[in-house]
């Protein structure tokens, strides 16, 4: 990990810990999860929001004003709105995507849950997702929630990442390994 990325991650983790502690004390963890859904949607769907949090062209006051309006429109909790306002004043809104990720991980860990990143060539059906979730629950001993994405370049199969473990059963990886074996022979 590069140094700037690790600095951003460290900043995000400190904010995430603080937000989680405040939410837990106020019994608002579920509400904070709703805030995270809204923020993730804004980060994914809005280029303007991405620019607002990452562009150095906006002043502290412009960012703080925009964040206040956005927090009101999104219906964010007071805890999250105040955190975003503080981040705007400190010029740290650029760590918001890492904050969302870190806070999700903190909440999941507190609930005894773990997230599995699953990449498939085609979208999983409900039955396939349920079977995979059940299998991962059994193998990890924790409640697993799937974060599924589609990557057609896999050709077939799937790639599952749970924590630091990765299982790659994609046809693309099998073809790559076959290609490497053939290079060694020839």
Automatic annotation (TrEMBL):
Its main location: membrane. PROSITE patterns: ATPASE_DELTA. It is found in: Cell membrane; Membrane. Belongs to the ATPase delta chain family. InterPro entries: ATP_synth_OSCP/delta_N_sf (IPR026015), ATPase_OSCP/d_CS (IPR020781), ATPase_OSCP/dsu (IPR000711). Transmembrane segments: none annotated. F(1)F(0) ATP synthase produces ATP from ADP in the presence of a proton or sodium gradient. F-type ATPases consist of two structural domains, F(1) containing the extramembraneous catalytic core and F(0) containing the membrane proton channel, linked together by a central stalk and a peripheral stalk. During catalysis, ATP synthesis in the catalytic domain of F(1) is coupled via a rotary mechanism of the central stalk subunits to proton translocation. This protein is part of the stalk that links CF(0) to CF(1). It either transmits conformational changes from CF(0) to CF(1) or is implicated in proton conduction. This is ATP synthase subunit delta. Signal peptide: none annotated. It is a peripheral membrane protein. PANTHER family: ATP SYNTHASE DELTA CHAIN. It comes from Sulfitobacter profundi.
């Amino acid at each position: 990990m590069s140094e700037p990325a690790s600095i951003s991650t460290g900043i995000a983790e400190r904010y995430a810990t603080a937000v989680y502690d405040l939410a837990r004390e106020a019994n608002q963890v579920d509400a904070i999860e709703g805030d995270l859904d809204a923020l993730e949607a804004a980060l994914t769907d809005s280029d303007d929001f991405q620019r607002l949090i990452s562009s150095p062209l906006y002043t502290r006051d412009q960012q703080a004003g925009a964040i206040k309006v956005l927090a009101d429109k999104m219906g964010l909790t007071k805890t999250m709105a105040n955190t975003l306002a503080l981040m705007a004043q400190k010029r740290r809104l650029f760590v918001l995507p890492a904050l969302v990720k870190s806070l999700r991980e903190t909440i999941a860990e507190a609930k005894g849950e773990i997230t599995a990143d699953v990449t498939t060539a085609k979208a999983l059906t409900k039955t396939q997702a349920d079977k995979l979730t059940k299998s991962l629950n059994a193998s990890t001993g924790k409640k697993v929630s799937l974060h599924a994405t589609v990557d057609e370049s896999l050709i077939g199969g799937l790639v599952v990442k749970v924590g630091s473990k990765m299982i790659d059963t994609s046809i693309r990886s099998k073809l790559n390994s076959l290609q490497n074996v053939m290079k060694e022979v020839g």
